[in-house]
Write a structure and sequence with these properties.
Mean pLDDT: 97
Shape: globular
Low-confidence stretches: none
Oligomer: single chain
Strand content: over 45%
Number of helices: 0
Largest sheet: 7 strands, mixed
Radius of gyration: 13 Å
Helix content: under 10%
Length: 121
């Protein structure tokens, strides 16, 4: 049974930083691209970034330069380092795994349950 478990969310002031973690089990982690998405209340799920199997990354303009994704295949873990946080970054953050790399939510094979990040102004 595949499980993705996020942690590290919480309340932070604008301009602050948080690091989210996502631990995977039940899958061959190194063979999957890992994505992060977020969903704010009343909004659609939004792509935040992807780290490919070989370690390359891609981010949308909304977070580029502020967010960094990394992975530790020995620990089956993917990280999302978030710096210079803004109130508009407030959302539930989800990690997801895809055997075929994609930035589309519909293309994910597995999802975590999410962790809440709240950025106060």
């Amino acid at each position: 049974q595949v499980q993705l478990v996020e942690s590290g969310g919480g309340l932070v002031q604008a301009g602050g930083s948080l690091r989210l973690s996502c631990v995977a089990s039940g899958l061959t982690f190194r063979t999957y691209a890992m994505d992060w998405f977020r969903q704010a209340p009343g909004k659609e799920r939004e792509f935040v970034g992807i780290i490919y199997r070989a370690g390359g990354t891609y981010y949308p303009d909304s977070v580029k330069g502020r967010f960094t994704i990394s992975r530790d295949n020995a620990k089956n873990t993917v990280y999302l380092q978030m710096n210079s946080l803004k109130p508009e970054d407030t959302a539930v953050y989800y990690c997801a795994a895809s055997a075929v790399p994609t930035t589309r939510a519909s293309g994910m094979d597995y999802w975590g349950k999410g962790t809440l990040v709240t950025v106060s102004s």
